[in-house]
Amino acid sequence: MSAAQVLAQLERLPFEEQREVFELLRDKFDGELMPEQAAELDRRAERALAHPERCRPLEDAIADLERRFHARQ
């Protein structure tokens, strides 16, 4: 799955789940991001927050990812 596809899935999550994913990623890479990368994450987070209607439950996104991952094995 490409980064664009992952982000498209992320945008479908409810706001609180998007924030949770963002915080997990931020914590994982804290101190390792280049300034432009941090700015891009901020931009994408703002876009996701501005369009909560594009969100969907985390469980649905995870199920899709698991199906796609298992299909490639």
Give the N-terminus to C-terminus distance in angstroms.
13 Å
Q: How helix-rich are the residues, as a percent range?
A: over 70%
Instruction: Identify low-pLDDT runs.
Output: none
Question: How many individual helices?
Answer: 4
User: What kind of sheet is the major sheet?
Assistant: none
The rough form would be described as globular
| pLDDT averaged over residues | 85
Radius of gyration from the alpha-carbon trace, in angstroms: 13 Å
Total separate domains: 1
Order of SSEs: HHHH
Structural class, judged by helices and strands? Answer: mainly alpha
User: How many runs of DSSP E, i.e. beta strands?
Assistant: 0
Query: How much of the polypeptide forms β-strand, as a percent range?
Result: under 5%
Report on this structure.
This protein is an all-alpha fold. It has one domain. Helix 2 packs antiparallel against helix 3.
